[in-house]
């Protein structure tokens, strides 16, 4: 069985795998921010919870920008991937 460390070492050793992983990370972070805001606007009825969700969404946006910077440094334009989302449709 492969460990997380083995997987990570394999990703770091391959520019293709690292680019794929970063691209998917960007997608996840960027779409999470939007989903959290949507969820907040749809379900949040009190200010305290709305503020918490807003902060989490902003942190996701920050994470997305960090990953976008790494992608751009590799000459790759960060994009939201056209794919079916497994989890959020059920949420």
Beta-strand content estimate: under 5%
Rg computed from alpha carbons, rounded to a whole number of angstroms: 16 Å
Q: How far apart are the first and last residues' alpha carbons, in Å? A: 31 Å
Number of helices: 3
Describe this structure in words.
α2 (15-43) packs antiparallel against α3. The chain is elongated, with a radius of gyration of 16 Å. The chain has helices at 4-12, 15-43, 47-73. The protein is built from 3 helices and no strands. The relative contact order is 0.15. It is an all-alpha fold and 91 residues long.
Strands, helices and their partners?
Elements: H1 4-12, H2 15-43, H3 47-73
Using brief descriptors, characterize the structure shown.
single chain, 91 residues, mainly alpha, elongated
What's the short version?
It is built from 3 helices and no strands. With 91 residues, the chain is an all-alpha fold.
């Amino acid at each position: 069985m492969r460990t997380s460390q083995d997987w990570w070492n394999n990703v770091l050793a391959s520019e293709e795998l690292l680019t794929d992983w970063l691209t998917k990370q960007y997608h996840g972070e960027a779409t999470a921010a939007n989903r959290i805001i949507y969820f907040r606007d749809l379900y949040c009825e009190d200010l305290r919870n709305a503020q918490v969700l807003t902060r989490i969404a902003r942190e996701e946006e920050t994470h997305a920008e960090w990953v976008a910077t790494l992608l751009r440094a590799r000459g790759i334009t960060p994009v939201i991937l056209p794919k079916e989302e497994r989890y959020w449709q059920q949420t």
